[in-house]
Design goal:
about 210 residues, six-stranded antiparallel beta barrel
């Protein structure tokens, strides 16, 4: 992997091609990310680049992170992320990673925290079927059988049950970049990306395309 950046989700829209084809896209505000540390095999045992994204007030930064930024002479950042790039040795502290590292047609993997749905039943959470909706059924959107009779006389592990839905880390792979707006730092990606608006999105060069 040679390309990676942090972004926030702006929202979704659609664009029209010259032949009138409509393409749904997710708009991402990508970078700029500043390199806060370069890790090497000699010092750290592996090669990686640590980057910071989005400015933050000094009072909101804890002491260890504040010391790291002060030592590097960098402005404080809200998010810090590490990327194991193949070309990590090419970067130096204070270098900026901007949206122009990507090009139209590149394939990426987008990782973010999905939307939280709260406590949901088994029908919405796991797609289980409902019962008859007649007045006498007494079984409409209730969950079906949870276990067996005498043997093993318990609910098996992994049984789809009601519970908290969403708000989990999700990755969508092999998304295509439709447009790169270097002036405004925007990436337009075909399809949907996990999470609500303003959520942090980690964008990496797709493993499939890198192979």
């Amino acid at each position: 992997m040679k390309k990676a950046i942090l972004a926030t989700k702006v929202g979704m829209t659609q664009i029209f091609s010259e032949d009138g084809t409509i393409t749904p896209v997710t708009v991402l505000q990508a970078g700029p990310c500043v390199v806060t540390q370069v890790k090497t095999v000699e010092n750290d045992g592996y090669s990686a680049v640590q980057v910071g994204f989005m400015d933050i007030r000094e009072k909101l930064v804890n002491k260890p992170v504040k010391g790291q930024f002060d030592k590097a002479g960098l402005p404080y950042k809200r998010f810090i992320k590490e990327f194991k790039l193949d070309n990590a040795e090419e970067y130096s502290v204070k270098d900026e990673i901007t949206v122009d590292v990507f090009a139209v047609g590149d394939k990426i993997d987008a990782t973010a925290i999905s939307k939280g749905k709260g406590y949901q039943g088994a029908i919405k959470r796991h797609g289980q079927s409902r019962g008859p909706m007649g007045h006498g059924s007494k079984f409409h959107r209730h969950q079906g059988s949870n276990g067996m009779a005498a043997t093993p006389s318990r609910v098996p592990k992994g049984k789809g049950m009601p519970g908290h839905m969403g708000s989990v880390k999700r990755t969508v792979q092999n998304l295509e970049i439709i447009q790169v707006d270097t002036e405004n730092g925007l990436l337009l990606v075909k399809g949907s990306v996990p999470g609500p608006k303003k959520t942090l999105v980690t964008i990496k060069e797709s493993v499939k395309s890198a192979d």
